[in-house]
Structures
1.
Amino acid sequence: MQRCYSTLIALAVIATTSFAGLTPAEKAGGWRMLFDGESWAGWRSYHQEKPPAQGWKIEDGTLHVVAGGGGGDIVTDGEFGDFELSIEFKVSKGANSGIIYRASEKYDYPWQTGPEYQILDDEGTHEGGIDTHSVAACYDIYVPSPDKVTKPAGEWNEARIRIRDGIVQHFLNGVKVVEYDMKSPEWKEKIAASKFAGYEGFGLQPRGHISLQDHGNDVWYRDIKVRELDKPLPDQVTLFDGEDFDGWNVYTQTQAWDGPTTWTVRDGEIVCMGQPAGYIKTNDTFDNYVLMLRWRFMPDRAGNSGALLRVIGEDKCWPNCIEAQLQSGNAGDFWNISGETIEMARPNGRNGKKSHEAERPVGEWNEYEIVCEGGKITLFVNGEQVNEAAGCPERAGAIALQSEGAEIHFKDIRLSPIE
């Protein structure tokens, strides 16, 4: 019997502290609140089992570092490996602080083991004139983008940190400003040339605490949320189990399953050879969801493919759907094959161009996060929002992956329904 994951109509909303401030799409995407705005739940002082007795205040839904309070750094109870952290911060004039990640309690301070997302009033302190010490830098190691947009002291900024398979990204007010690879020789060379060279294991730990730094100045943090990228999504539906095509069917222009010449499973991956044109399509239909999938083309062999969303009607090349483009250099584009008019930010006929390039080099793995919620579809490539369309047909449909002329591999295909 075919299942249809449809939107549940909420007759009542029951607010809970753990999900305060989260949208339905964020919940489906695995986000949870890391600070409930009212208590120290989930946090404690560094090297202590209790929260700080002084120097920090919980007020008006914020964590406030009090100038001269002597509270010391705080850390999360839990440790994180691959994760995404979103947090808003506000600094006083001349203030300095930091968000330290993958920190252990081996030494006297969190910064001795974990890299730091610098929090700073660039305009009000001499540190702002040192590129590797300015706001959003990977402190003392990587310089943030020179075109970063920073709001002044007294106004709220948004920081985001994402770590996935060793790739670390710093975002400031929605724009990526730092990216580096913890697995690379360059990272080890950078550590060796920095103030952290003497701390064994600095920046190399696979998991660790998240820490907020007390640097002696007034700084406020709020809306702190996190998701663990190495864990299943809430109510996860695994579309591909790494073993076979159970739950999928195929359409090609030859109207036949072409076996190992087109679609195969190899080493836990779906391998598509690209010929003949067509697609594999889920037997089940879905309407509102967060879809995650990873793909790569062969080294030095750029190609074309796509993820087809809300597929309905006759099987043909190409069916009634909205396509999230996977073509090399254009991942994040939309193609409107639905026959209906939709609103795209950068339209070019039926094509809606991405805002910017976010793909890895050809041959490396990329990750799509696709959020289908009502009439809006949002596309993220490798953690960066690159496109959004409104007025999309609101319906349950299959999800399909294209065979379109080039060898392409897929894995980690899963979704979480948005309720």
Note: DSSP finds two helices and 32 strands in the chain.
2.
Amino acid sequence: MRILVVDDEKELAEQIRQALEEQRYSAEIAYDGEEALNRLFDAPFDLVILDIMLPVRDGLSVLKEMRAAGIKTPVLMLTARDSTVDKISGLDLGADDYLTKPFYTDELMARVRALFRRSGNQTDNIIQAGGLKLDTVSREVTMNGALIELTAREFSILEFLLYNKNRAVSRFSLAEHVWGDDFDPFSMSNYIDVHMKNLRRKLGDSAQGSVIRTIRGMGYIIRDEQE
């Protein structure tokens, strides 16, 4: 899942990014409201962690413009002010939840997981295809009951493919989701191949059976009925 962290406190923003990536989320940072809007209009995100007090454009202004443009991405608002007015304003503009600074990382992660469960009316945090199961809350992956250890990038790749199971996913869409603006198609194309090779090896893909199938000239697909 791809998350945008919007906070002008660079040390805090980096701490949040690291905490998210430790839980195998893909995270990017914007340090002001204008940069946040540019990123949101440029590529899709699965969640936005948005501070209210921002330079250039404040968080409430960003949220208002997001919703006016039809961007329904879940938003977790952050505020250093324990003000009921800020919380009500954010919720009225379309925020999905709020968290007052300072906060514990565990609480932030719990809010993130809860928002992912609520988005799309999800009632089950397990995504599966055949014997492959991925838990979006515990971040665990199992194949026929056996636990598989994945890196954060590998987890993001597999999660995206499973969310789109039975549909072909292009290499570009996959790269955009996992690496975001950091991906350079000219110099980093082999990154996908390397991560995909390692992921397939861990899933036990072979000539006799394949979880992730390559579609020539298109990309990849995971089907409910695996070969």
Note: Residues 2-120 form a domain with the Rossmann fold fold (CATH 3.40.50.2300).
